[in-house]
């Protein structure tokens, strides 16, 4: 079997799930490289649909700190970004924060990844059964289902809405976002920066900054000088009206910004060594809407289907939910319990409802976190990292987990 996806983590998860359903030794897809980190909250139990039990039990090896046993339930401390005073521990589920690079490697095991394939266009057979991805290098791949898991600016989405470019295009939000990795190479500095929480914490600054610090890599838990951190700062463009776009990544300007932060944010940012690479994220969103699946032959998954702003940390969780639900539906198709066009229609309807709500919520959340007068009403502040009550996939997984725990307890007594 060949899987015609072009993808990051979500495509890989779907490929893994298909391997499980179809019992094949290898599936193939296209995959270029990137690095950032993610928290895996309510998505964690859903990964069982994608991996074998043995592989699922090894997920912690992709965590940013594989030596750290996550708290259950988790929490994310929220600080006043200007004074460093703790405002609230936001409730989270038990979660692993994974490094995107490491999680991709984990997910790619056993998948035949074909690098360097870029989608040019899609064609469909007249009999309503097959779909063909045509790549820019004049090669193509044909199958019964094309999974467009090709990220925020998804070429597959643009092909699906080929007659309406405006409809297909992800919209930018008016925020600046910088992201960087830093190893302080110093025991005391690393311990100071990690004091906010062993995994991640954030600060809300009264002047309109969102400040985020997370551990990124722990090669040796007893050697803080080796620890790598991820620092992010976001702010509304109007907060610094004189800042030219080409200066968003300026470290000098960021050091000045850091002067107004409270500890440990202030030192964490002032200690960034000169020459550190600062990445700029152009935050964009697309509210999913129903598309023509061409009789169940083309779908969107992950950021291709629901790119969202990241301060609520939900993008990958929804990508995992897409993969988990798709795998369950394709299993029914394989077992002859459902026709493919029906299964794919169900997949699309569920995605549009669940992830559409999250895309909207995340935009509101981003706006509120940058507004001192409103941040305590923001979705992350009020609902934490929990899945929404309309998220049937996550709630089902949670119920299943509770049932298992109850059965385990009963068998002990
Ligand atoms: C700063 C930041 C922090 C985040 N934090 C969190 C978090 O804490 N928790 C969370 O759940 N989510 C988080 N997210 C969101 C998360 O990163 C994404 O939702 C997730 O990685 C999306 O995975 P994906 O596989 O759908 O897309 P991607 O990882 O974008 O993969 C898409 C792939 O398609 C490829 N592609 C693109 N165009 C083509 C083409 N023409 N042909 C072939 N291939 C193509 C790309 O190269 C890429 O490899 C964060 C995002 C950002 C930016």
Summarize the structure.
The chain is of the alpha/beta class and 413 residues long. The protein has helices at 9-22, 53-56, 100-108, 155-160, 165-168, 187-194, 251-259, 265-270, 315-334, 340-369, 379-383, 392-412; strands at residues 4-6, 27-30, 37-40, 74-80, 86-92, 96-99, 111-113, 119-124, 131-135, 140-143, 146-148, 171-172, 175-183, 200-205, 209-217, 228-236, 279-280, 284-285, 298-300.
Can you walk through the features of this model?
By secondary structure, this protein is an alpha/beta fold. It has two domains: 4-69 and 96-171 and 286-412, FAD/NAD(P)-binding domain; 173-280, 2-Layer Sandwich (D-Amino Acid Oxidase, Chain A, domain 2), CATH 3.30.9. 33% of the residues lie in helices and 22% in strands. The protein has helices spanning 9-22, 53-56, 100-108, 155-160, 165-168, 187-194, 251-259, 265-270, 315-334, 340-369, 379-383, 392-412, and strands at residues 4-6, 27-30, 37-40, 74-80, 86-92, 96-99, 111-113, 119-124, 131-135, 140-143, 146-148, 171-172, 175-183, 200-205, 209-217, 228-236, 279-280, 284-285, 298-300. Strands 5-4-14-15-16-13-17 form a seven-stranded mixed beta sheet. The protein has a five-stranded parallel beta sheet with strand order 7-2-1-11-19. The radius of gyration is 22 Å and the shape is globular. Residues 1-6 and 25-37 have low confidence and may be disordered. Bound molecules: flavin-adenine dinucleotide (FAD).
């Amino acid at each position: 079997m060949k899987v015609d996806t072009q993808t990051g983590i979500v495509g890989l998860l779907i490929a893994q799930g298909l391997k499980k359903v179809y019992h094949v030794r290898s599936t193939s897809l296209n995959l270029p490289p990137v690095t950032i980190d993610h928290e895996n909250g309510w998505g964690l139990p859903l990964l069982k649909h994608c991996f074998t039990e043995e592989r699922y039990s090894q997920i912690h090896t992709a965590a940013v700190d594989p030596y750290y046993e996550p708290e259950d339930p988790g929490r994310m401390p929220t600080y006043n970004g200007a004074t460093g005073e703790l405002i609230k521990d936001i409730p989270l589920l038990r979660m692993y924060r994974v490094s995107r690079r490491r999680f991709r490697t984990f997910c790619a095991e056993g998948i035949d990844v074909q690098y360097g394939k870029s989608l040019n266009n899609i064609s469909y057979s007249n009999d309503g059964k097959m779909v063909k991805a045509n790549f820019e290098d004049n090669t193509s791949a044909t199958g019964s289902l094309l999974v467009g898991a090709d990220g925020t600016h998804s070429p597959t989405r643009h092909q699906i809405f080929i007659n309406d470019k405006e409809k297909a295009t992800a919209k930018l939000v008016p925020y600046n976002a910088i992201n960087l990795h830093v190893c302080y190479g110093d025991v005391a500095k690393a311990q100071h920066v990690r004091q906010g929480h062993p995994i991640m914490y954030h600060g809300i600054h009264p002047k309109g900054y969102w400040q985020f610090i997370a551990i990124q890599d722990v090669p040796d838990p007893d050697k803080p000088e080796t620890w790598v951190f991820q620092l992010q700062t976001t702010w509304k463009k109007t907060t610094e009206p004189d800042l030219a776009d080409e200066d968003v990544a300026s470290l000098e300007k960021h050091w000045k910004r850091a002067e107004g932060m409270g500890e440990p944010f202030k030192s964490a940012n002032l200690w960034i060594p000169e020459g550190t690479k600062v990445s700029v994220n152009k935050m964009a969103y697309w509210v999913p809407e129903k598309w023509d699946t061409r009789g169940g032959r083309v779908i969107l998954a992950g950021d291709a289907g629901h790119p969202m702003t990241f301060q609520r940390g939900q993008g990958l969780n929804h990508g995992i939910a897409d993969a988990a639900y798709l795998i369950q539906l394709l299993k029914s198709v394989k077992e002859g319990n459902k026709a493919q066009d029906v299964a794919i229609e169900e997949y699309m309807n569920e995605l549009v409802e669940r992830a559409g709500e999250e895309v909207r919520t995340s935009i509101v959340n981003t706006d509120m976190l940058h507004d001192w007068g409103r941040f305590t009403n923001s979705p992350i502040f009020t609902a934490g990292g929990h899945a929404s009550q309309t998220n049937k996939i996550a709630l089902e997984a949670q119920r299943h987990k509770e049932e298992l725990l109850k059965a385990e307890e009963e068998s002990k007594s």
